[in-house]
């Protein structure tokens, strides 16, 4: 169940169809008409809430309603093979509000036909947060908010964020969101497709009494060889599926450089200094949920909170990374919040564009779950540790078996799965060794942001057939425990005495999270000695 509610709706209200967009003559905000199961006094939400609008989803659920519809997955050759049609013109049953809306007619390789609502496809590709949902209706906005340059000779791009940009600064702390924004800005087809939304609005919007209305449509990028996983209503008579929701899209072509630097004058990096007089900020765990007030102003003077919507699994055709470049340092507050009356409160928020000096606390959506295989981009974080392991494998009786880098999982209301310096994934190196004929596993977590001192874990006597699930459990509990090794879980997996922690060497100057290369040889000798003690040699 979600941790947010819309007070304008009753509990367990289902979205059955998504109709035309509309805007009152004297208003600037666009709304999205909804056909709801169990009629409500108001049956619409603003475009800022488009990230969570999908057919057969429930608003304000009180129970787990599960996934609705027939599951189907398929690859496409290219969207150039698709035809655009009104949903009402397709040979499938449709609700009245759906009939005028546009869909894509998608031929599938097994002979089926998918009817994919264009709003749903636009949501998956572009409507990942309130900003991208709103500015899609204004094709000139990206040029005003971002200055982009590409250096293909060095396989690099640079994105300067204008100080007047409306994109929330806090959202740039998330690598997935930076990467997706970079794709929209830099990939020629993605950019053209995104901007086609606003161009179609200008061309095909129509007046209906007091309202300006529009039936959503856009020109999709070609996406050659892309993979789709969808859910919908399957009609056996016509051998077709009407798509309610896309839950996965993979092999998204990304014609952009491998490395992108993103800069904003207000970006900061935590310094090693501590600010003893800092103002405590209530930890995320003090907020039990969010009350979203649709079509009310958000206050520009408050920091925006991120609300996690139902995630869409996405994957690019190649790995790339967007670095957050900062010139300013900020002191880290060491003031500990005293708790108080805020424990477990529900926060009233708005996801609308911020207004100075008025409105609710600001919020924004995040529905991205990027599964692009990019762990090789973070191996440099473990250079000293891997150098120490390489030194150990030169000893008699120590043989390297495997090396893998895993990003730590996202856990609700936890932040330690990302580095505080730039928002990139915090990764764990998992090293398999054979030491004196016995299998040993080393777990090393990236703490280069100096958030916490964390020893390297050495594991023996584990159940190899269950290791994949055990590793997931260890990583989950590590994040949930704010980077403290889950001793009880490790003992359950390895048995009493089957694991130990080995501290890192101390660096001169107190530079936490960093190690000098000349410490490697001594570190390797000490480390190997502790492993032998654990194995009782």
Layout of strands and helices, then pairs:
Blueprint (H helix, E strand, L loop, with lengths): L3 E2 L7 E12 L6 E7 L6 E3 L11 E2 L10 E6 L7 E4 L15 E6 L5 E5 H8 L4 H6 L5 H5 E6 L4 E6 L13 H12 L1 H17 L1 E3 L2 E4 L12 E9 L4 E13 L6 E5 L4 E8 L11 E6 L5 E2 L5 E12 L4 E5 L2 E6 L11 E6 L3 E2 L5 E10 L12 H10 L5 E10 L19 E9 L2 E8 L10 E4 L7 H14 L6 H8 L4 E4 L17 H16 L2
Helix pairs in contact: 4-5, 6-9
Could you list some keywords that capture this structure?
537 residues; alpha/beta; eleven-stranded mixed sheet; six-stranded antiparallel sheet; 9 helices; 30 strands; 18% helix; 34% strand; globular
**Mean pLDDT level:** 87
Q: Structural class per helix/strand content?
A: alpha/beta
Oligomer classification: single chain
Low-confidence stretches: 271-284, 332-342
User: Could you estimate the helical fraction of the residues in percent?
Assistant: 10-25%
Bulk shape: globular
Number of helices: 9
Task: Please give the number of β-strands.
Answer: 30
CA-atom Rg in angstroms:
26 Å
What is the strand content? 25-35%
Q: For the report, how would you describe the main beta sheet? A: 11 strands, mixed
What is the first-to-last residue Cα distance?
Answer: 52 Å
Provide a descriptive summary of the structure in words.
With 537 residues, the chain is of the alpha/beta class. 18% of the residues lie in helices and 34% in strands. The chain is built from nine helices and 30 strands. The strands form six sheets. Strands 1, 6, 7, 8, 9, 14, 15, 18, 20, 23 and 25 form an eleven-stranded mixed beta sheet that branches. Strands 2, 3, 4, 5, 12 and 13 form a six-stranded antiparallel beta sheet that branches. Strands 26-27-28-29-30 form a five-stranded antiparallel beta sheet. A hairpin with a 4-residue loop joins strand 10 and strand 11 (156-161). It starts with a strand and ends with a helix. Mean pLDDT is 87; it is low at 271-284 and 332-342.
